[in-house]
Amino acid sequence: MSGEGEFGYIARRLAPLAKDAPGALGLLDDAAILSVPDGRELVITADTMVEGRHFLSGTDPALVARKALRVNLSDLAAMGTDAFGYLSCVTWPLNGPEGLKEGFADGLALDQREFAVSLLGGDITASDGPWTISITALGHVPRGAAVLRSGAKPGDTLMITGTIGDAGLGLKCALGELDLPSDDHEHVLQRLHLPEPRLALAAALREFASACADISDGLMADAGHVARASGLGFELDLAAMPLSPAASRWLAGQGDEAAARVFLATAGDDYELAVAVRPGTEEAFAAACAAAGVPAAIVGGFVEGGEARTIFQNEVLDIAAPGFTHF
Amino acid sequence: MSGEGEFGYIARRLAPLAKDAPGALGLLDDAAILSVPDGRELVITADTMVEGRHFLSGTDPALVARKALRVNLSDLAAMGTDAFGYLSCVTWPLNGPEGLKEGFADGLALDQREFAVSLLGGDITASDGPWTISITALGHVPRGAAVLRSGAKPGDTLMITGTIGDAGLGLKCALGELDLPSDDHEHVLQRLHLPEPRLALAAALREFASACADISDGLMADAGHVARASGLGFELDLAAMPLSPAASRWLAGQGDEAAARVFLATAGDDYELAVAVRPGTEEAFAAACAAAGVPAAIVGGFVEGGEARTIFQNEVLDIAAPGFTHF
After folding, report:
1. Are the Cβ atoms of B130 and A129 closer than 8 angstroms?
2. Helix, strand, or coil (residue B72)
3. Separation CA A96–CA B292 (nearest Å)
4. Could you report the per-residue pLDDT of B218-266, keeping only the tens digit for each?
């Protein structure tokens, strides 16, 4: 990058990411111009990732870019959104490692093809602090059809997409605190670095879900966010929590299974969906998810009152800290 | 803030900033939901400010918040946009000074009243690096009416709102590199810390401008951005550059007036508008600006070819670096 500067990098690496979005104006203007299709509403979210806090120093910069985009797309997915674009504000570390900027653009290029979104704008700067990336992601939904956290009703079933806890194990592996067999190690690291935003489930959510949140802080915390926003309580059966083969093998080696399952349910970074499914539609929802290649499992339900009951083998667990908070 | 945590701060200080925007969902959901009025297009921009790079450490945090919002609103203003909201991604410095978070929320509260915008979402995190704020600002324009950088035609007049160079002098004062009389000192610091996004000129721009950019990198650089995006050159007469009384008094004390005017025209951070006004409508544009309380001055024009000619007292100046680049 020596000598190229801000405008050169934008022209060479970022403008190509905006070429399919005419409203991005080639990233040459003060702002982007977007049309929202008739009968649709815009959905917008923004999240930051900071080196050393949300990802480890030395992580492949392409993976960092992809995760920064994916965690935002996951927020859109939770609302049943059809995603179409994003803005990227990146603060490079001064004297950062070789290849950071190229890897970042490579990662964005890969994932915007994968998820059919375009770069629409943003900003580039640098500081003597950690690498920091703020992404704003955009999508749309049919008017009035967005799935909110606050829509759960008593009697709704709590369902979970994919598997829970892999990213938590992946972080332990990345930190050198855990050894897993080679394939399992690869799997949980992949799940840590490349969460799968469940955008493919947008239509199914809009049809069957009364509420939803993506699981970033941990299954228990985010199920709790849905319950609280809906003025309800919830029950969660940790025995029903869907696990990957890797997580199941890890679990089999743990002495205290209840504590191990609580770890998986509170580790966060899953970017699966915690869904309040209307009673009687659980099978139809699971079938719609399966048709999109995503498993969905029943793990509990929403109830009157404000209580969060986490049970395992018919015992109610006493949980001190249900999830990760960011500061 | 001790003990309050992320969710407490959001509920106590940020959620009130979102209360007039139903689509912000009380900042309790994964994303915000927005409707764009019929016949209008969305305009969206995002910019980052980093402590030590875009503002000095120790700056009043309310001023930092207001400038972070204002520089984004300025980008919207340059396109003739009616602004309505913003998302804020903030990374606090760990062990930052007392009052940072309160001051930040105070500043946003003040300016969102001033500019009739609402907080719509965002993110909060922390790092051991400098305080970093990324704002995404949103507005709308009548479909097809956005004023682009690329619309200038040969023969268009280059007009400038407000005055140029005050923020550059303000930065010198803030750094202790310049002493000005007390009132002038106050004026240029105010201009550094609180740029005036020219949102009030949105309708006038849409009526009379064929192109526009806001002046963040410096008058010469940003006039050049308009010219280049339009495939044109431009002429700029530094003698015609509008100056505040404070800048005029500073200028009167400089030995080399041409060099001093080049400093003012390249210092940046003005957040005024460089406008390509259709020939014959200059007076009407200036009158519309004056009706909104903003002066507008003719400083040059756009011409065929790609040349940037900066003149002063009938001499063409040779300018090495027309503006600030960010890394």
Report:
1. yes
2. helix
3. 46
4. 999 999 999 999 999 999 999 999 999 999 999 999 999 999 999 999 9
pLDDT in tens, B105-158: 999 999 999 999 999 999 999 999 999 999 999 999 999 999 999 999 999 999
Task: Report yes or no: A166 and B155 within 8 Å, Cβ to Cβ.
Answer: no
Q: Do B34 and A42 touch (CB under 8 A)?
A: yes
- Cβ atoms of A100 and A1 within 8 Å: the answer is no
| Chain A partners within 8 Å of B31 (Cβ) | 43-45, 75-76, 78-79, 81, 137
Q: Quote ipTM for the complex.
A: 0.93
Tokens at B91, concatenated: 């990374």
User: By residue range, what is the domain housing residue A282?
Assistant: 149-316
* A310 in the same domain as A163: yes
Report the predicted TM-score, pTM, of the whole model to 2 decimal places: 0.94
Annotate A163-179 with three-state secondary structure: CCCHHHHHHHHHCCCCC
Domain count, chain A: 2
Residue B168 in any domain: the answer is yes
Whether residue B68 is predicted with pLDDT greater than 80 in this model: the reply is yes
B146 contacts on A by Cβ (under 8 Å)? 33
| Nearest by CB: B75 against A31, A33, A146 | A31
Note whether A163 and A284 are same-domain residues.
yes
Give me the residue from B36, B45, B327 closest to A30, CB to CB. Answer: B45
The mean per-residue pLDDT over the stretch A124-131 comes to: 95
Instruction: Give CA angle at B325 (B194, B146), nearest 5°.
Output: 65
- Shortest distance between the Cα of A117 and any Cα of chain B, in A, equals 16
Q: Which of A94, A118, A142 is the last residue of a domain?
A: A142
